[in-house]
Known about the structure:
Elements: E1 2-15, E2 26-52, E3 56-67, E4 76-87, E5 104-110
Antiparallel strand pairs: 1-2, 2-3, 3-4, 4-5
Amino acid sequence: MKLELRLFYGFKQGQVLTGITELENFSTINLTRLLVKRGRIESYFSRLNYDYKGKYFVSGNIRWDGNSRFSPDVRWENFWGVGVGWRIDKEKFMERLKCINALKLRSSYGQLGG
Length: 114
């Protein structure tokens, strides 16, 4: 993805009418500049899911992010995550509890970045 940042800045002096802050109400406008910065970002994502007998679940993912605006030694970074799940309602000891038709325990951990 291409990125473009446009920044217009400056300052104004000599307010003609008090309380009106539009540029046209000032006698002097100084240091009006336009700054343009360009860059690129790129990301790749991979995920793996495993399901054992519809009761036990394991998942893992990894993401690679790159940004041209960073220095070459930190331009690319890896971010990962793992997760596990257990469908408790599929266990034999849950069969006698008719009031629960779905119960899942899930936990995950991962690294974020930006």
